[in-house]
Amino acid sequence: MKVTMVGTLPPIKGVSDYCIQQTEVLSRRLDVDFVNFSHIYPERLYPGGTKETDETFQRRDSVRLTVRAYLDWFNPLGWFWTGLTASGDVLHVHWWTFYLAPVMVAICAAAKLRRIPVVMTVHNVLSHESGPLDRLLTRIAFRLPDRFIVHTEENRRQLADIFGVARERTTIIPHGVYTFYDDAAISREDARRELGLSEDERALLYFGHIRDYKGLDVLLHAFDVVRREIPSARLIVAGTCWTDWRSYQRVIDERGLGDRVRLDIGYIESSKVKVYFRGADLMVLPYLHFEAQSGPGNIALAFGVPMVVTATGGLPKLVRDPDAVAPPGDAEKLAQAIVKA
Q1: Cα dihedral sign for 86, 88, 89, 92?
Q2: According to the model, what pLDDT value does residue 70 have?
Q3: N or C: the chain end with fewer CB closer than 10 Å?
Q4: Candidates 3.60.150.10, 3.40.50.2000, 3.30.420.10, 3.30.465.10; correct CATH number of 2-172?
């Protein structure tokens, strides 16, 4: 059997961490014809100067995996050509942003003309800051696939309730664990030294994009409580800020947290991810609302880093201890969970 897959692989970022794991497993059993992007979005859509590629992001080769990188956001001919020339028995497309709706609609429609079954993995049913245009484009795109794959029961409910997708057409497959980040190339001691941590400090990690729904402000208020209970606690915030940073800096300044918070604001290269997770003692996911599963959470699983999460979406499934789950938006309860962890 052969599958044609449309998504992203390095050096393009997008959903490459997921696609790396997926293609590696699939290519052990069948042939994978992967159609990658050469340019995925206009640069102006990236916040904080983020770029669409990461040259340190690597993938493993396989004799049963072929990669063609010719999709461009600005070339409709390439979109239709992908669907018209798909050589797989099945077309599998990845959906993670409505910005690519015209691309995915063209590819799927062309494949359907050739009677090729279409499967769509939906990473985000709706964007995290959803609006009318998002829903319209998503509704059009979701009319084309024959089957859907989502990561949580909440995602399946969204597909049914918002877009009328019959539940029996949707399969739940949780995120895999991103083991490729844990290449054992750095020791815990070296990682902590690079992060400026002493051995007796307890390092809490917030990793990934800084967006309003991810609750960093709640974590900062919680950390103000935690540091009184655990004087050795130190918070590391690493990731690109998609919103106005000044509101977070105000909390840090007003609470006097500056000497206990390390700020690495900006894109973290793939080659540096292991430094943060090897050096951390605890990962905190303080999300306010969330329907899917967390990429940073699945990296933490790969490194065996304990987590404290909030009770939203698929986050509680990342931990075994119910005491490691706090109500969204409750800084006091989040602090209690961190202290207990």
Answers
A1: negative
A2: 92
A3: N
A4: 3.40.50.2000
DSSP characters over 215-229: -HHHHHHHHHHHHHH
β-partners of residue 262 are 236
Number of Cβ within 10 Å of residue 137's Cβ equals: 18
Cα 320 to Cα 51: distance, rounded to the nearest angstrom: 36
Q: Give this prediction's pTM.
A: 0.88
Q: Where are the domains of the chain?
A: 2-172, 184-340
Which tokens go with 110? 């062309």
Q: Give the per-residue pLDDT at 178.
A: 85
Phi, psi of 131 (to 5 degrees): -140, 180
Bridge partners, residue 172, by sequence: 150
Count of CA atoms in the C-beta half-sphere (13 A) of 240: 11
Identify the three-state secondary structure at position 278: helix
**Superfamily of domain covering 184-340:** Glycogen Phosphorylase B; (3.40.50.2000)
> What distance in Å separates the CA atoms of residue 167 and residue 148, rounded to the nearest whole number?
9
Range 248-255, long-range pairs (CB < 8 A, 24+ positions): 248/210, 248/216, 248/217, 248/220, 251/217, 251/220, 251/221, 252/220, 255/220, 255/221, 255/224
214 neighbors 288 (Cβ within 8 angstroms): yes
Eight-state DSSP code of residue 45:
G
Mean pLDDT by 10 residues, the chain (341 residues): 96 90 93 94 64 68 90 95 97 95 97 98 84 90 98 94 97 88 83 95 97 96 98 97 94 96 94 95 95 87 96 92 97 98 93
- What's at 146, amino acid-wise? D
Q: Give residue 260's pLDDT.
A: 97
Q: Give the tokens for residue 24.
A: 């590696």
